[in-house]
Design brief:
This is Alpha-D-ribose 1-methylphosphonate 5-triphosphate synthase subunit PhnH. Its EC number is 2.7.8.37. Helices cover 26% and strands 18% of the residues. By secondary structure, the chain is an alpha/beta fold. A hairpin with a 7-residue loop joins strand 6 and strand 7.
Amino acid sequence: MSAALSTTAVSGGFNDPVLGSQAAFRRIMGAFAEPGTTIDLGGFVSAPSPLSPAIATLLATLADADAPVFLETDDAAETLAWIAFQTGAAVLADPADAAFAVLSPMSDPKRWERYPLGTDVYPDRSATLILPVEALEGGASLTLSGPGIETTRRIAPLGLPAGFIAARAANRALFPRGHDLVLAAGAHCLVLPRTTCVEEA
């Protein structure tokens, strides 16, 4: 590893590894508990491009030596080194064992089944998918319902891939198996757990 690469890898982590990671964890868990609620993960960590602040914070908080990461498109040395140093997680070449998968923008939902879906006995062995989008508002309105939502909740993310709604319906039908999905734009993200019903508004 070069000196420049070493500097890139070791910089940009939590300023306060304990309090910072705890604060980020609370926000992320809140987003899982309240599907479709946007949270701000800016200011916690700083990672090399193309990892956005929200995605970098998600990985720095949740990935570890027992929760490896798969990057759908990016394999830049700086990115791989940052993830490895800041999280201790392996960055896999094969998606079959990923705990977290950072998808490419407009990722084809037909390919998401290659990521672990868990089993009926061990549903927690599924991968959490992280999908970068253009923005979390400004797109077509979608209606969410299910656990964590009292009645319904509206979201309007911009930059969802074709087949997104059908893919989420098929994923929900697999319960207790299936993927939890995070939509991330810049420093903000929202979570769509496998139990959330996503429909056109």
